[in-house]
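Exercise 3.2. Students should predict the tertiary structure of the chain below and write it as C-alpha cells, then compare their answer with the key that follows.

Predict this chain's 3D structure.
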Amino acid sequence: MRAIPRQMGARVPAPDRGGKESATCEPRCDQKAHFADIKSPRDVEVAKEWIDVFLGSQSVFRSVVVDWSIYRGSFFGNPFEPEAPKKRRAYKKWLEMLLQPEFARLSDASFYLDRLLICYGYDVLSELQDRFTRGYLGQRPRIREFQAVRSWKDAHQCLQLCDLLVGCVYQKLVSSTNPAKLAVTDYLYDSLKPFGVKDRAVSYWKQYADAVMSKHFPRFSEWYWRPKK
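Answer key:
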C-alpha cells in the first residue's frame, strides 16, 4: 500500500491581491523541505516549522492512498490497452475526486501538478483542465491556470509542503528506522489532534468514505481508495 507519489496543489490569491482566502491557499515558509532528505535534528526542526505554518494557515491537505493489490485496470480502459494509460486515467480520476469537494471554495486559483510525461497521447493536466473548465463562460473562473511543474524546485513551496505531508503518510504505512522521519511523522499527527484527527491508524481512516472527508476533517484527510462494486 502506498500514497500516490505525485503532488498537486492549488493556490488562491489572498484578499489584498483582489481575491479571497481559500482553504487551499498556499502557506509560505523560508526554508525548503523534502521528506526524503530529512536526516538531521536540524531537518526535523525545519519540517516542524513547515507543519506549524501549514496548520496556522487556512490550507487543506487531501490525500488518496492506493493499495495496488486491489487496483483493477479494467475500471479505467479496455482489455486491449497497455496498463500505463489505464493508470494515468486512474490517477486523473483520483485527483478529480480529491479536488471536487474543494472546488466551490476556489476563485481565480492556480493549479499545480507535479510534471508527468504524456503517455500514449493521454495528458493528465489537459484532461483535468477540460474537466474543470469545460463550458465556463464567466470572467472569473474557479481555476484560472493549470501548470505542470517540478516540485523539487524551491519556487514551488505548495508542492514541497505536499511532499512533506505525503511523506508522513507513507512513513506511517512503510515505516523506516530513520529517527528523524519518525519524529516528524509523530509531530504531524500529534499536531493534528486539535483538528479532529484522533488517530493515525489505517483502520481509523477507513471508517470514512471520500464523500464525507471534508465534513469530518476540514484540514487534513487520508482517503483509502477502494473500487466501487
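Discussion points: The chain has a mean pLDDT of 80. Residues 2-224 form one domain.
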